[in-house]
Structure formats: structure tokens, C-alpha cells
Amino acid sequence: MEALAPEYLIAYKSVTRKRPCVSRDRVHCVDCREPIPSDAQICPHCETVQPSPLLDVGVVVAGVFAFVFGVILALMTLGTTRMLGLGLIVVGFGLAVGGYTRYVDRQAGRRGR
Questions:
Q1: Are 27 and 80 in the same domain?
Q2: Cβ density class 62-96: b for 16+ within 10 Å, e for less
Q3: 46 and 58 share a domain?
Q4: Over the stretch 36-55, which tens digit does the pLDDT of each residue have?
Q5: The model scores a pTM over 0.85
Q6: Residue 62 shares a structural domain with residue 110
Q7: How far apart (Å, rounded) are the C-alpha atoms in residues 90 and 73?
Q8: Residues 45 and 58 in one domain
């Protein structure tokens, strides 16, 4: 290796340098952006409570339920109840899609992407 030109030796050393192992189960705090364990409920650095994905899952489930119930009302009734069904379809779709995108955005933010 010493017979190589200095610029090639530097390039060889930089390619073969070992990178430190970082655990895959670490995420970033939503407030201070420091790496924390993925199962941490409170950040050990700034003591900020980390958001729970259960709330987002609840919103998505409620949205799907409202959507399905709205479809049933809109297809099987007449008059004002049909209008209520159409409203539930719109609200349920918004809750389901909005809850899912909020969950995806939070996960991407916590992973530092």
C-alpha cells in the first residue's frame, strides 16, 4: 500500500474506513431533534412528550367507519338521511386520508427524513 501515490492512499483509506454502527431503532425527538430510542415516550434531553401513533390510528378507524356508514345511508335511504350519508362519506374520507397522512408525516419527521 505504501507504493501507491499519496492521493490514492488517502482515497483508499477513506473508502475502507469503518463507519460507526448506529442503532436502527433510534428516532429523532419532535422538539429538540436529538436521537432517542424509538419506544421512548418522553425525550431524555428536553423532556418533551413524544406523540403516540394510537391517536392517528383512532382517527383513521373513525374515518373508515364514518365512510362505510355514510355509504350505507346514502344507498339505502331517501331525503335528508341520504344527505346525511353523503356528508358522512365526505367527512369519513377526509378523516381516513388525513389521519393516515398525519401518521406518515410524523413517522418521517421522527426518523429524520
A1: no
A2: ebbebbeebeebbeeeeeeeeeebeebbeebeebb
A3: no
A4: 887 888 888 898 888 777 88
A5: no
A6: yes
A7: 13
A8: no
